[in-house]
Amino acid sequence: MDHCFRLVDLPPELLVHIFTFLPKDAIHCCRQTSRYLCEFIESSIELRYQVARELAYVTDNPASILPISERIARLSARESGFSNMTPSWVRTIPVPFRTAGLYELSGGLFWLGESGRQALRYVVLPTEPPGTSSPPIQWERIASSSSQSRIIDFGLAIDEHDLVVIATFTPTAPVKQLEALPLIQALAVSPGVVKLEFVTVSSPSGPHPQAKGSIEFPPSHWGIPSAIILECVGDILVFIVAYPRAPLVPDHVYIYNWKAGMLLWELTAENSTYFGAVFLSTDVLMLPNTTTATLELWLLTAGQTAPVLTLHLPRLVPGTRIANMTARGEPNPSVSGRKNPRMPFHSSVEDSIIVFNITFPAPPNVFTPVFLFFVHRRTLLSLLAAHPTPGDALNYADWGPDICRWINAGGLVTDWITTTSGQRCIALPVREPASFLVLDFNPLTVHAASSVLPAEDDPFEDYGIWAEAVGSRLPVHVMSSRQQYNSYNGVSLDDARIIAFKVRFFFLSLSRRC
């Protein structure tokens, strides 16, 4: 009689390897088939870590040197910390220099611009509580290559390329003509040259070895640009430069191969059209269009003249217009797969949310309407896959109500854009004392939670802004910290921490979450 092969007869290490190819629901079903498999799966730390990653929508970081036991412990601590909204420790980081209006948070580093705009400073955010054996916290400094240049913005691709892209402006007017004016006012009226410098982040910092050199643009006659966007994924750099103070000057969107210094294509638009850009994937770029109140999805191939898909926002009441619309999604897609070895896992790029910040013009001394809305990155890509014909356009009612969540942000601090990580977003009410609020769009968390915002068919019916219903039915779980705070001016979020800001005497207060 032939021997009947049984799955459980396989060696344990081979059985674990086979099960790693199964999704969490299939693993759960296998646990219910026999006592042996139930005990086997529960005893396998590899399978428990895999299921925990799927529940939290994070991806493992193979560059991490931590053992699996430590990784699953940190992931469990992180999820528990966010669920309870109680920090396990708090550290304060002084800022011992005068700052400019430049900042960023990415790759476990927090960045600020120096006053005078000739250098950037960054600090490696701690992952351990005070009193441990971790190295002392210190600010690193990266200076512009020229003492005559002023840094106007910067973009980061730390995990993928160890790269900071620094946009500088060098006045070409005689220096004596500008000495009597404050720095920003002087730059606003001076003709000058915009240049992009590609610099390594890790010490010793210097010109990036993969970049052919800096990229210099034709001289500007309208002073320093007052709107700059820099995003880098793979070999592609998106650089948006605009002059809202010069209303006749069009916006320019440049798509470069930054390593070769080669311009792939260029897009021009009406002044004050683009204030943001998000890579949905390595080859799809989303541009929120303020002028037309749309989201434009572009394929990043040469010769593009129009978006492949246009998503309309809710129709505005005649005479109403959007003043500003920014967007952010963290983390960015990656081509190389290089990861920061300090983190054992990272939020899933595909499942992360995109947050949009929309403001409307208002007369002086009148409250400015501000709204946030959220949508998953994966959902936007699914819309593109379902409408691949170039030039397609969808009205909001046909794509948005079930997959978007809108929030009136008039009572929230909206000065900081670094508020999302993965499927979470953090917010701080303006009125003090205030609790930190975390919006969690993880569908598994939402399903298990009790405090879920109800679906709304038209939450802004009486605002006099939109001419159609603003459906807002994307499920979201809202959590608030038990402690209330009086002295914070803003708050940010990354994969491991909540970072709170006190701007009066600038320092960072870090709440540990994993």
TrEMBL record:
<dbReference type="Pfam" id="PF12937">
    <property type="entry name" value="F-box-like"/>
</dbReference>
<dbReference type="InterPro" id="IPR036047">
    <property type="entry name" value="F-box-like_dom_sf"/>
</dbReference>
<feature type="domain" description="F-box">
    <location>
        <begin position="4"/>
        <end position="52"/>
    </location>
</feature>
<dbReference type="InterPro" id="IPR001810">
    <property type="entry name" value="F-box_dom"/>
</dbReference>
<protein>
    <recommendedName>
        <fullName>F-box domain-containing protein</fullName>
    </recommendedName>
</protein>
